[in-house]
Amino acid sequence: MHKSKQQTTLNTFQLSTLVLALMALNPVHAADNDVQSLGVIQVTGTGQAASMNAALREQQSSDSISSVVHADGIGQLPDDNAAEALQRLPGVSVERDQGEGRFVTVRGLSADLNAVTINGTLVPAPESNRRGVALDVLPAELVQSLAVVKTLTPDLDANSLGGTVQVNSLSAFDHKGLFYTGTAEGSYNSLRDKYSPKFSGAISNRFSILGGEDNFGVAAALSYQNRKFGSDNVETEGEWKGQGLNKISMRYYDIARERLGAGLNFDWRTDSGQYYLRTLYSSFNDTESRYARNVKFDSPCVVNQVCTGKVTRALKAREEDQDIQSYVLGGKQQLGMWLVEGQLGYSEAQEHDPQGLSGAEYTGKFKGLSYSDTKRPVFTSSVSDLNNPKNFTLNSIKEKQALTKDTEKNIKLDFTRDYSLAEHAAQFKFGGKVSHRQKTNDENEWVYKKLNNLGTSDFYGDADYGLASFGPFIDEVAAKNHLVGLDPNKNIDLEASTVNDFKSKENINALYFMNTVDIDKLRVIAGLRFEGTKKTSQGYGYIDGKVSPTSHKQDYNNWLPNLTLRYELDKNTLLRAAYTSTVVRPTFAQSSPGMYVSNTDLEAEFGNPDLKALTANNFDLSVEHYFGTAGTLSANVFYKKIKNFVYQTDVSGQGRWADFDTATTYRNGQQAKIYGLELAYSQKMDQLPVPWNGLIWGLNTTLSHSDATISDTYTTRHIRFPSQSNFVGNALLGWEGERAGVKVSANYKSANVYQITDVSQPALDIYNDKQFFVDISTYYNITKQLKVKFDVGNVTNQAYYAYTGSKSMNAQYETYGPTYKLALTFTHF
């Protein structure tokens, strides 16, 4: 698509969204008795409207600016996991992996700068190099509600710059009496022509114990899915030199992603207290075979030029297991004038890569190599057959094993007392939290070379690769057979097996106080939070072939003031304003003391344990109007001033690295600013005559802008904050009847900066291109309890595209195809 057409499409989408939002400034209201008073959560209507209505009432009664989605709302759209459900909310977008939502971005701030809690306790991250939690580990069926809290009060952890994702699991008190539901689903991926099963269920009930009535509840949920899919990919990793390419990789992915999730929760309520135990376990097994046809040109090759180079056919066959466990024991008890709340939390996240092929490479030297498209640069040869195994020789085989473990233990205690301040209702609250976190990473890699085997019998079949002719697969078993009898101890890669290993401990002690006073229709919340951080980290240095241990300690304190105002213009209209201050620590990998140094090659790569924590001053102003069933109109203006954001840079040419060609590490940026406007509108058209009263529609959009300053020895420049998109939008249009319904949802995200490669060379920055996803969901109620659903995900076959500097220069192009789902659900309530 030409640039002018792309811009026209974008402008049309933005204009349409804004026009529809402005039309909603004078909505047709439902009858007054349909509008719920503040603080009351009551479901009216059915289907998506009922779910949206309940979520909006919860959002309305909150002291914070937040967005909420309920469990039945998650099930109304073709979302496989918690991340995809959250992308429907204002200001929220997702980072995708293989076309599936994984990490949640809030207001342009990446998942590493936001926190995730399950039932009030922090969720650690399974990945070694991230703080952000991949929410595709959590099946949607285990979730009762999801909320993104964008303005934090002092009693909440201050460790998010964009927002805190709060995951709440099922409780027996969410339903009256016995409740159970079960779903059987089958899906079909058109790209790989594969079918995938999914089964889920939940049950809850209340019991009378110790003289009470329906005062003890038990809830359980279980979910299993084995999703089989894949993708076709071509990427350059940004290896451009002017208009020429250094290398190209064509990749064929075949993936089986198995999820198992379970939750078991207990609640006990008395006349003066409530107690609970929340447990959640989620297992994520990813079996991936990546077949690649790569070329490394002898010199940079421009489009349509005939070049020479080394072509490699490669296989990466690995298994990745991720587990998350969360256990929360807590409660609240009225003791005289004071309400005492306490919580013990333990959570654990783990990622295990059992020993598997990280690379089996068969190489050959070729002439007549060329490519004809810079956006999808698949390459061919006019001289030799790139698909003939006889033209390739087995060069090397690599194996890798890795284990990352992240645990968090916390204890929290809060005290609250209501009192009268100058004849106004007031509340004083104070408390503290102790959190101990430990993250370890251990990697081992083996490299086997000089295997002296042509390996022509190691190939089979022909890959159905949608972007070009690809050729045969590499047989994993045949490749591994070449290692039989070889001694792993003689082939270990000492560098790769040490430099990424680390052990970090992070202890955070927090104290806070806050006071709330209601003056007529105005609620004022003011408070202060203190967080003291103590961190120790251990790693390894690999310097000129020698390994030595490294360590570092870091202590710092943060004082975080907070002011929140909430004013009721009338019983359905709210004004909110908030000033909040927050702090986020660098990732454990960024601050690792590990390093690689080669004084011979003049190359170095190392973490920076002296990195400062990121801090932000946040200002929010919003107006919200609620009406009818699932009806809301809101606008929110936000501004964030961020200090000490972290970026990757090359510090060669200065200090110790004055004579080095490259010295890659992390630095704190000077400052960044992000500001924007969130608009949201939704309504079920109850006031229209039958059948039009079944119409439901919603729109939300976030317009934002950012400016950040980075520098190295020679250059200072302004950039957009990484991962921040200027425009994010969602649209929903549907019709719901008692027997049947259909919904079309769309999600749009404009381009954003993915990676700053070199501060002094902006042409090497990598950007994620815009994306526009459309999903369709339909249902038919066979009976009041039995429902059949048919969904289509990614109707438009939206691909992922990343580019280097210019939109015409590929960094990565990947396509996934649509997915079709058929499900049958039985619910008793």
Automatic annotation (TrEMBL):
It holds the Pfam family Plug. It comes from the Bacteria. Residues 366-795 form the TonB-dependent receptor-like beta-barrel domain. It is a multi-pass membrane protein. InterPro entries: Beta-barrel_TonB (IPR000531), Beta-barrel_TonB_sf (IPR036942), Plug_dom (IPR012910), Plug_dom_sf (IPR037066), TonB-dep_rcpt-like (IPR039426), TonB_rcpt_bac (IPR010104). PROSITE patterns: TONB_DEPENDENT_REC_3 (PS52016). Residues 60-164 form the TonB-dependent receptor plug domain. Residues 1-30 form the signal peptide. Keywords: Cell outer membrane, Membrane, Receptor, Signal, TonB box, Transmembrane, Transmembrane beta strand, Transport. GO terms for cellular component: cell outer membrane. It is found in: Cell outer membrane. PANTHER family: PLUG DOMAIN-CONTAINING PROTEIN (PTHR40980), TONB-DEPENDENT RECEPTOR-LIKE BETA-BARREL DOMAIN-CONTAINING PROTEIN (PTHR40980:SF4). Belongs to the TonB-dependent receptor family. NCBIfam families: TonB-Xanth-Caul. This is TonB-dependent receptor.
